[in-house]
Amino acid sequence: MANMTLVKTPMPEQDPQIRARNFKEVALGYTAEMAIEEANRCLGCKNPKCVEGCPVNVRIPEFIKKVQEGDFKAAYEIITSTNALPALSGRVCPQESQCEAKCVRGIKGEPVAIGRLERFVADWYRENVNEMPSKVPSNGIKVAVVGSGPAGMTAASDLAKKGYAVTMFEALHTAGGVLVYGIPEFRLPKAIVANEVEKLKAQGVEVMTNMVIGRVLTIDELFEMGYKAVFVGSGAGLPMFMNIPGESLKGVMSANEYLTRTNLMKAYDESYDTPIVQSKAVAVVGGGNVAMDAARCAMRLGAEHVYVVYRRGEAEMPARLEEKHHAKEEGIEFMTLCNPTEILGDENGRACGMKCIRMELGEPDASGRRRPIEVPNSEFVIDVDTVIMSLGTSPNPLIRSTTPGLETNRKGCLIVNENEMTTRDGVFAGGDAVTGAATVILAMGAGKKGAEAIDKYLQGK
Amino acid sequence: MFKIVHKRELNANVTLMEIEAPFVARKAKAGQFIIFRIDEKGERVPLTIAGYDREKGTVTIIFQKVGFATIALGALNEGDYIQDFVGPLGKPTDVEGKKKVCVVGGGVGCAIALPSAKAFKEAGAEVTVIVGFRSKDIVILEDEFKACADNLILMTDDGSYGRHGLVTQPLQELLEAGEEFDEVLAIGPVPMMKFVCKTTQPFGTHTMVSLNPIMVDGTGMCGGCRVTVGGETKFACVDGPEFDGHQVDFAELMNRNSLYRTREAEVTHNHACRIDAMGKQLIK
Question: Is the per-residue pLDDT at B263 higher than 90?
Answer without folding.
Answer: no
